[in-house]
Amino acid sequence: MAASDDSFSLLSPRRRLLAGLVLALSNFMVVLDLTIANVSVPHIAGNMGITPDQGTWIITSYAVAEAICVPLTGWLAQRFGVVRVFMMSMAGFGLFSLLCGLSVTLGMIVVCRIGQGLCGGPIMPMSQTLLMRIFPPEQRAKMMGLWAMTTLLGPAMGPIIGGYISDNWSWHWIFFINLPIAALCIMAAAALLKPVETETRKLPIDFAGLALLVFWIGCLQIMLDIGRDRDWFGDPLIVILAIMAGVGFLVFIIWELTEEHPIVDLRVFRHVGFTSGVFTLALCFGAYFASIVVVPQWLQLSMGYTATWAGFVTAFTAMTALIAAPISGRMIARVDVRISISSALIWMGIMAFWRAHWTSGADFWALSYPQIFQGFAMPFFMIPLTTLSLSSVLPSETASAAGMQNFLRTMAIAISTSVVLTVWGDGQRVSRNEMASVLQAGDAQAQLSASGFSMEQARQVISNMVDQEAAVISMNYVFFFSMILMFLAAAVIWLAPKPTGKVDTSAAH
């Protein structure tokens, strides 16, 4: 969403700078919450007496709610005003953060995370829109660079901050720390941004489309989240949810294609460049986020890492991405973006192949090196991919295309979280059974007994070793599949025609 007026002249340079920093901070907070809970899932699960698999609902519920709310952002801004929507969203985000921290059951925290996601969804695009309104054209590129840096920095700092807080304070504080930031952003917006409020007008809203969107996504996500605990399609409830999700999806597509004011403009998919671009984005982002979910859990549950150190291993990727981002931005105008995107995805596929050879004996740096090197490729597919997909649609469709792009990226995160944990859990059971069937444990038991272990203790030690090896073998398969998805995405991007001309990426929230 670009600013076409001169509303920036209503603020003094000092107020513009302060407002810009506050908007960047608000975006950082929302992006941070996407990953801050990842390393804390074992702590939360242990505290609430639930399985780590159930604990991941805390991640997926936030991502799904955020994805559902994104298509509503444009309507909300035009109906109530950008500044007002930003402040209401921030207030809701702070309230639900407080309730998340006070949660004592899985049901309560999942409901509160849904509320957090619904309120957090509009904050990213609204902060971007306001940055474009308060700065003059010659300064917008620099401020969008700052905004983009917070988008990369959030996932980097999330695992570290979440790990440190969980280890040294309590997991509740990963949510409580949002409260002072939300309060600061609300007060600053009220004091600084009121002069640049947008005009409001009554607009029709596609309530039927919204209801269908919530219905089919809800059915799909519940199916993915509880399927691994219910033997998948051996359970009638999973079959019913799958049918409901499929029928809901088909009806949603038909409705949106025939509605005059659709909640999601599916017509943008007629552009081959956009379709191949967002499909590539969904594939690679799903494969990338799989590692962000599974690595911290494996390190804590199987390798004995604290949440803090698991956070460092996970965060190295985003840290090196920050270093490479300025180089990527300069290369967009000089190199065919399809070359940049496919090269970056092949590089990330190679890093996934490297991680597919991790062992239970790997030390901290053996685990960190592929994470570090993977980060250098991140900006070379994220930034050019936005440019490619948005340059493939008409200028009047840019906002809709950007919203769809963000929606699919967020849904890829939610779905990949559920799928990867299912694959990892099932793989552990298969690997454990295979090892148990060929294991000759007699000699090991005798040696352990000679060392002073009781028979029961010796069996437990051997069982723990088998569990540890089964966990890493299964995770290696996860990374092997991630590699295949990365290579597939690198090929799919070449279905897009070579982009021509410049595109306004300011709508790419």
Automatic annotation (TrEMBL):
The chain crosses the membrane at residues 17-37, 57-77, 89-108, 144-165, 171-193, 205-224, 236-257, 278-299, 305-325, 337-356, 376-394, 406-425, 477-496. One of its GO terms (cellular component) is plasma membrane. One of its GO terms (molecular function) is transmembrane transporter activity. It is found in: Cell membrane. Keywords: Cell membrane, Membrane, Transmembrane, Transmembrane helix, Transport. Residues 19-501 form the Major facilitator superfamily (MFS) profile domain. SUPFAM superfamilies: MFS general substrate transporter. InterPro entries: EmrB-like, MFS, MFS_dom, MFS_trans_sf. It is a multi-pass membrane protein. It holds the Pfam family MFS_1. CDD domains: MFS_LmrB_MDR_like. The keyword Transmembrane helix applies. Belongs to the major facilitator superfamily. EmrB family. This is DHA2 family multidrug resistance protein. It comes from Sphingobium wenxiniae (strain DSM 21828 / CGMCC 1.7748 / JZ-1).
